């Protein structure tokens, strides 16, 4: 099993690029680190909404690291599911069998060294803050039950400073840096091309595009 890590700022389009790449490769699965947010059900809804979800501390890295190791060993895992509207981990889980190719995507995929050691190829999507904010507003108001004013407040209070402190410095660890403003399908093809250059078994996939 190969693992490709896709990181970048919030709103860069990591999930869309991963989905496009998964469409191109049979036996490919996508695992988003957002589902590994810590369960906040022990807090009131008001206190949950004040949490800094743009900080690496908001994620359960121990669980993610353990499950990556299990997948590497050839065994399935029960990946968590997260309710973003309530900031809680749900009772449901997602059974994930070890795929041929795993795409691990999320803000902090390249931030933690113990996660990077599981990755065979690392990608960073680079985008302007204006583009990322517009995409985050569109996503959070339609999918995560947030108001535009709340999204903008969290953006200025948490997302921007956390990006500067944690996400942007991790760019230097990426094998491949891509412009997130270009169509996600083009980025997916570029990643597959890079994979084909590294791994002979992927050359046929790229040549068929």
Comma- or semicolon-separated keywords:
single chain, 209 residues, alpha/beta, Rossmann fold, five-stranded parallel β-sheet, 8 helices, 7 strands, globular
3D structure, described in words:
By secondary structure, the protein is of the alpha/beta class. It has a single domain (2-196), classed as P-loop containing nucleotide triphosphate hydrolases (Rossmann fold, 3-Layer(aba) Sandwich), CATH 3.40.50.300. It is 41% helix and 20% strand. It is built from eight helices and seven strands, in the order E-H-E-H-H-E-E-E-H-E-H-H-E-H-H. The protein has helices at residues 14-24, 45-49, 61-72, 113-116, 129-142, 148-167, 184-198, 203-207, and strands at residues 2-7, 28-32, 77-83, 88-96, 101-105, 121-126, 176-179. The strands form two sheets. It has a five-stranded parallel beta sheet with strand order 2-5-1-6-7, with helices on one face. Helix 5 (129-142) crosses helix 6 (148-167). The protein starts with a strand and ends with a helix. The mean pLDDT is 92.
Q: What percentage of amino acids are in beta strands?
A: 15-25%
**Main pleated sheet:** 5 strands, parallel
pLDDT < 50 stretches: none
CATH level-3 fold name: Rossmann fold
What's the tally of helices?
8
Output the radius of gyration.
17 Å
Can you count the beta strands? 7
Question: Which secondary structure elements does this structure contain, and how are they paired or packed?
Answer:
Blueprint (H helix, E strand, L loop, with lengths): L1 E6 L6 H11 L3 E5 L12 H5 L11 H12 L4 E7 L4 E9 L4 E5 L7 H4 L4 E6 L2 H14 L5 H20 L8 E4 L4 H15 L4 H5 L2
Helix pairs in contact: 1-7, 5-6
């Amino acid at each position: 099993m190969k693992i490709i890590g896709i990181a970048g700022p919030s709103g860069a389009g990591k999930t869309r690029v991963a989905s496009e790449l998964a469409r191109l490769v049979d036996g490919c699965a996508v695992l988003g680190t957002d589902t590994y947010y810590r369960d906040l059900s022990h807090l009131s809804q008001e206190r949950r909404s004040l949490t800094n979800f743009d900080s690496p501390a908001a994620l359960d890295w121990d669980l993610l690291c353990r499950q990556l190791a299990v997948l590497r060993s050839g065994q399935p895992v029960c990946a968590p599911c997260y309710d973003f509207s309530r900031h809680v981990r749900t009772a449901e889980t997602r059974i994930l069998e070890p795929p041929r190719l795993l795409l691990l995507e999320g803000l902090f995929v390249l931030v933690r060294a113990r996660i990077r050691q599981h990755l065979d190829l690392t990608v960073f999507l680079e985008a302007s803050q204006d583009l990322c904010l517009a995409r985050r507003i569109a996503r959070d108001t339609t999918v995560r039950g947030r108001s535009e004013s709340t999204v903008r407040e969290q953006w200025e209070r948490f997302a921007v400073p956390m990006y500067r402190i944690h996400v942007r410095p991790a760019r230097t660890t990426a094998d491949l840096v891509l412009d997130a403003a270009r169509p996600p399908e083009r980025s997916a093809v570029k990643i597959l091309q890079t994979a084909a250059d590294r791994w002979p078994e992927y050359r046929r996939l790229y040549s068929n595009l």
